[in-house]
């Protein structure tokens, strides 16, 4: 037995307070201590190799050994190791990244500021919206529209925005949160209802909810273009096209949470382009730095910029910011990651490999356990059902997602369990061979677990 492995596991369990980790699985399997990576693979301390079928947490999109990102970081550390963006000071990589992001935005955007993560970027948007409405003499516009199964982060308000019961379970400031339906056709469309009809029904229901709440109390709506942590829910055709006019009718800004979708995940540079979303505000993170530095960003349309700036004038400033938001090293890394994605064939690779991945997933839908195989680009999910006809979920104690993910881990593949589903988000550098192997392993596991 390798005592080093034991010792690191014991040390981890003895010292580390686990977040978002299933404690029963930890007790059974212990933590996996990862110490190196190579391309799309990671290696644990015992030397076992795993294909990272989730790109870490959707973020290590360029894999685990992109030396150019390490080199650019080293150069920037040597040149100017870090700073903040407050009090009228800034640094060159931060400005260059702001310009590049505005150039690449899916709809014209006017200005951008940087944060450290997706959660704090969403949190920043909430403050900005509240400040803007208060400055415009509408201080009652505080409520935030979100959707069941959305994930927007772990800070207090971002958790409240997250439409998952287990996140909100112990009580969060939910009073100003309005939860809308999850736009998931397979689960919630009526029998025989087309995507268009379902979208129209959701838009009508949105309008009812806005009217019932009082439009004069609503600050904005947050939406992931494709829901990620909610189980990779691609909205029905026409969904954003139909809900946007409703929001516009009541002057409600739409915030696209592109934390997962942004920078290629769907096969489009932005999720907004994949689903016809025209945001007023965009939140980005994850792939922006390919996971090599904690980064987040908030982009504002010209209208939002103008109105937020007017509000700032009233209070002399936006009383907000994070010491390390816009860190020059993070910005230099992000510029390089974005260059690699957009100019050096990575987006092309997603467009080549993504459809093969999606087609392979769809063939797994024929398996008796699989209720739905879904996804877009390089994000996908398999939702397991106890009864395919009635779409009855497996009982919780069956822990079907956990069992599949554990079997995959034993075979050297990391995939993520999510209740009765498993979620997959291979790195953008994944090859056709690697995707083929991932799909083969999934098929084998489904046959074994069944
Ligand atoms: N928004 C979305 C859509 C996410 O998926 C996540 C994280 O997974 C977040 C926000 C929060 O980002 P972070 O974990 O960087 O705070």
UniProtKB/TrEMBL annotation:
Q: Signal peptide location in the record?
A: none
InterPro entries attached here? Aminotrans_3, Aminotrans_3_PPA_site, PyrdxlP-dep_Trfase, PyrdxlP-dep_Trfase_major, PyrdxlP-dep_Trfase_small
Q: Name one GO biological process term.
A: biotin biosynthetic process
The protein's required cofactor(s) are namely: pyridoxal 5'-phosphate
The Swiss-Prot or TrEMBL record annotates one GO molecular function as: adenosylmethionine-8-amino-7-oxononanoate transaminase activity
Keywords assigned: Aminotransferase, Pyridoxal phosphate, Transferase
| One Pfam family this sequence matches | Aminotran_3
Per its UniProt entry, which superkingdom is the organism in? Answer: Bacteria
Family, per entry: Belongs to the class-III pyridoxal-phosphate-dependent aminotransferase family.
Q: What is this protein called?
A: Aspartate aminotransferase family protein
What species was this sequence derived from?
Answer: Phyllobacterium myrsinacearum
Lineage per the UniProt record: Bacteria, Pseudomonadati, Pseudomonadota, Alphaproteobacteria, Hyphomicrobiales
């Amino acid at each position: 037995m390798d005592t080093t492995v034991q010792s690191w596991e014991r040390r981890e369990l003895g010292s580390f307070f686990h977040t978002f980790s299933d404690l029963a699985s930890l007790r059974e399997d212990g933590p996996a201590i990862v110490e190196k990576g190579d391309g799309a693979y990671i290696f644990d301390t015992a030397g076992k190799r795993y294909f990272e079928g989730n790109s870490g947490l959707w973020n290590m999109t360029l894999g685990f050994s992109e030396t150019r990102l390490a080199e650019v970081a080293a150069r920037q550390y040597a040149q100017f190791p870090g700073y903040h963006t407050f009090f009228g000071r800034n640094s060159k990589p931060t400005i260059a990244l702001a310009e590049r992001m505005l150039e690449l935005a899916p709809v014209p955007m006017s200005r951008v500021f940087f944060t450290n993560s997706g959660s704090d970027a969403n949190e920043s948007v909430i403050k900005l919206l509240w400040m803007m409405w208060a400055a415009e003499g509408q201080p009652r516009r505080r409520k935030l529209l979100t959707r069941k199964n959305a994930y927007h982060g772990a800070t207090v308000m971002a958790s409240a925005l997250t439409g998952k019961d287990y996140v909100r379970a112990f009580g969060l400031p939910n009073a100003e949160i309005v939860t809308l339906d999850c736009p998931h056709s397979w689960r919630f469309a009526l029998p025989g209802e087309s995507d268009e009809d379902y979208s129209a029904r959701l838009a009508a229901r949105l309008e009812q909810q806005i009217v019932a709440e009082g439009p004069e109390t609503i600050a904005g709506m947050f939406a992931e273009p494709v829901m990620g942590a909610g189980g990779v829910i691609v909205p029905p055709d026409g969904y954003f096209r139909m809900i946007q006019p409703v929001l516009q009718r009541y002057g409600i800004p739409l915030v696209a949470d592109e934390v997962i979708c942004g920078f290629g995940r769907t096969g489009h540079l932005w999720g907004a382009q994949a689903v016809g979303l025209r945001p007023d505000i965009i939140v980005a993170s994850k792939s922006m730095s390919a996971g090599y530095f904690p980064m987040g960003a908030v982009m504002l349309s010209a209208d939002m910029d103008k109105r937020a700036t007017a509000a700032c004038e009233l209070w002399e400033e936006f009383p907000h910011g994070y010491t390390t938001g816009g860190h020059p090293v993070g910005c230099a890394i992000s510029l390089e990651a974005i260059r690699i994605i957009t100019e050096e064939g990575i987006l092309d690779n997603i467009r080549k490999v993504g459809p093969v991945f999606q087609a392979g997933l769809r063939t797994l839908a024929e398996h008796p356990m699989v209720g739905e195989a879904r996804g877009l680009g390089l994000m996908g999910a398999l939702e397991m059902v106890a009864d395919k006809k009635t779409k009855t979920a497996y009982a919780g104690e069956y822990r079907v997602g956990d069992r599949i993910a554990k079997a995959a881990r034993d075979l050297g593949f990391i995939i993520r369990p999510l209740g009765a589903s498993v979620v997959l988000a291979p790195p953008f550098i994944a090859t056709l061979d690697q995707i083929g192997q991932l799909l083969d392993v999934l098929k084998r596991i489904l046959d074994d677990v069944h």
